Structure formats: structure tokens, C-alpha cells
């Protein structure tokens, strides 16, 4: 068994099975064997089963939220927020299942009809991270099942309890064995099984760019298609015409969600020179009012880092900035609570050579850079191998359009710090991966287009 630890106090909160390879293989077999019957179900039947799962979870929110606080460390308010977000995908795709339309094309030949139909790609697999233990799974499973695919999930071994509870509720709602399966154990071994089995026709992965590259390399050998949601290095640009109060609120919301352990967390705050000092002062005032602590309470708090490696990474990035001559405007060390807690921190007077300008911080650290002109900041914002999301605050409409065109990212968010919901396409470009999740576009990743020519009519 794998012990699951509460990052807030190190206690064991539960266990998950460390499956043997033969158990993993049996689960893959069930996923593949269940595909023909599931794909032939009426769209309405798949839709109703998904809707039933949605309702079953909705009746059990409190138990899910508590589990998420305990194994992930996020606060209760955020756990409930994630449940709403994650439920949104099941609800959306329960509806979308009925609307996977095909097409007809004017025929190129006499007495013929050209049709395009969409068919589920086949059995699929997914590997998910620990930072959103609920939503990462519902987003992938609901899409796959709606399209008529079956799916086997390997959740993060840091947060398998929420995952197994999702499986249990799916079974209670009548989603059959094989249609949705789950395995935990050795990630590398399981990843290799997923990528080498030619019966698995698609893999969806959310996690680090390094692991994404390994999986995509192996999947290249079997030509297994992939959706990859990888690392980010999001710029958050505040222009001198921005609504300062809104920009501070947006910055705090986007940065401190899940204690900064989010792939779309702003990693580089670019603030126009003319308002830089005022912005930093307002940000410090706002952030200093936010508490740090264990999450089983009703108000928002910044929680612990997920594990010792996460804490050490954040500490070492801040120390490296300090040594490089940056100014620590707030925080800057491990929190007095001890354990895995880190102080919400603001670092200023950084330059683009700083280690934290190139590395995903994954912690509650605001890294602030000055800029002078729009052209300069767009160039600096794009000077990264990543391209997941970019945020901008400006009241100038022309500038908003220019940003939306010129920023290299899968998502551009203007005058808001909030990105995700079920109805929009989530995903990146460059080394942040490819493919989209959510919205109409999400389902396209799980269907093959089949061209049918009926000639001789
Ligand atoms: P993070 O930094 O978010 O933990 P990882 O990429 O390490 O990112 O982990 C994301 C998911 O990938 C987790 O479920 C983890 O267990 C899994 N994972 C880690 N290494 C491998 C691997 N070599 N092959 C397949 N999955 C892996």
C-alpha cells in the first residue's frame, strides 16, 4: 500500500494500493474490453449516466472537500471551489455527449453522397497531478466517456484518495467497470504500460514538461495520440492605465490559489515603471492580510507546499534571488508554523536572468519585474519556452487586441485573474504542450473523423 500524507501535519490520512503489473494489466484489459459496448450505447444513455454521476457527487460534496483538504492541503473554500469547477465538466459533457455532430460535404462525383461522421477514438488512458485532485480527473473522464471512449486513470500517488472516491461514486451512479478504471503504483511502470499498449488509442497527461516529453516520446513508438497540459511560466502584465485595485485582486487570486501550486499561476509580474512602487505597496498590504495555515476552516488561507521537495524548491528560488541582489518586499522564508508552510512572499528588483524568471516557482511567491514600453514587455513575456497562459491589465482596447494577437500562449486573460471553466478551451502552446480540454474543442480530441463516400446512388 501507499501511505497518503496530510501536507499540513505529516499524518497518514489513508492508503492507496501499490498495484502489481499484473493488476495494472487486468485493469487495462477491462478498459479495452468495455469499449465496444460503451461506444455503441446511445448518446442519451451515456449522457444520463454522466448526469447521474454529477448528481451523486453533488450529494456528497462535504466528504469530498474534507478529503481534498487532508490529502492536498488546500483550504476548504478552495476545495469547494474545485468541486464546483470539476462538476462543471461532468455537467457540460453530459450535455455535449448528445451533440457530437458530423457533416455532409457537397459531392465531388455524380450520384454520390459524402458524409463525415465522428467516432470515439477507442480505449484511452490519463495521468493526472496532485494540485487539483478532483477537477483534473472529472475534466478528462467526462470528456472521454461522453465521446464514447473508455478511460483508465492513474492519479497522482500524493492524492489518490479523492480519485478513488470519484471512482466509487461513478460505480454507484451505474458507470460500469471497465468504462472508468483506476490504477496506482509505480508511475514510470504504469506510464510505460499505457504508452506501449496499442489498444490504448489516446493518452491525456497533465504534469511536468519533463514527464510529458518522456511519455510523448514513448507514445511516438505506438503512434498513440496525446493531449499534453504541461508546465507554464505565465506573465502577468500590469500597464500604467490599469485599474490598480482590480489588478491587485486579480494578482492575489491567480497567484495564491492552491498556494501558488498551479500551472497557470502567474510566474512573472511585469509592472510598468510609472506605477511599479504603488502596485508593490498595494500588493504587499493586501497579501500581508492573508493568513497561512491548515485548511479545515471556512475562510481562505494559504496552505502548505505539497511535499518537502516543493518547499525546498521555493526556498531555493527565493534564496537565489536574494543572492542575486533582489529585494524581498514581503515574507521570504519558511513560515513560523514549520512543516511545509512558506510565507507569502513578494520579490522585486529582479531581472530576466533570475532563476525564478525561467523556473516554474510553484509556491506563494510574487516575482515582480519593471518594464517601460508595450513592445518591450511583449518581447520579454514571450521570452520563455512555455506558452500556457498570459494575463494583462489595461483599459486600452487597442492594446488589449495587440496583446491577444502577439502573446504566445494558449490562453490570454485580460483584466481578470480567473481562467478556467468547463465551457472554454484550456491548453497551451510551445513547451506547455498541445491539445485542449473543456468546451466543444475538448471533445474533438476524443473522436476520429471518418469520411464515407456513397457512390452509385
Ligand atoms: P508534478 O511536478 O506536478 O508532480 P509530475 O509530472 O512529476 O508533475 O507528475 C504528474 C503525474 O505524472 C503524476 O501522476 C505522477 O505520478 C506521474 N508521473 C511521474 N513520473 C512519471 C513517469 N515517468 N511516467 C508516467 N507518469 C509519471
TrEMBL record:
GO terms for biological process: gamma-aminobutyric acid catabolic process. InterPro entries: Ald_DH/histidinol_DH, Ald_DH_C, Ald_DH_CS_GLU, Ald_DH_N, Aldehyde_DH_dom, Aldehyde_DH_Superfamily. Signal peptide: none annotated. Keywords: Oxidoreductase. The active site is at residue 229. Belongs to the aldehyde dehydrogenase family. GO terms for molecular function: succinate-semialdehyde dehydrogenase (NAD+) activity. This is NAD-dependent succinate-semialdehyde dehydrogenase. Residues 2-452 form the Aldehyde dehydrogenase domain. Pfam families: Aldedh.
